[in-house]
Amino acid sequence: MGEETKIGFKDVRHMAQLSRLDVSPEEESVFAGQFADILGYMDILQEVDVHEVEPLYSPVNHEFRAREDQTRAVRSHEEILANAPEADEHYFIVPKIV
User: Which residues of the chain have pLDDT under 70?
Assistant: First the structure.
């Protein structure tokens, strides 16, 4: 196998912070082990010789068909305001937040 990548608690805390997750010390340990397992599998896949393997074939032709953007009124202003807990003639009324 290639060089093993080590995921430490510092890395787990950093990823949790980026994800805006609160992670307990017990979870840090579990996640560090899971990340290490995932990277270990990636190392194994890196070693597989795929030079003789043909690319996957799909019988379906995957063409991207873009359409022009068109505006259209799906609901009237009155229908939308009817769903509001509170509204005047033109706008939703919401509590003031300072």
Answer: 1-5
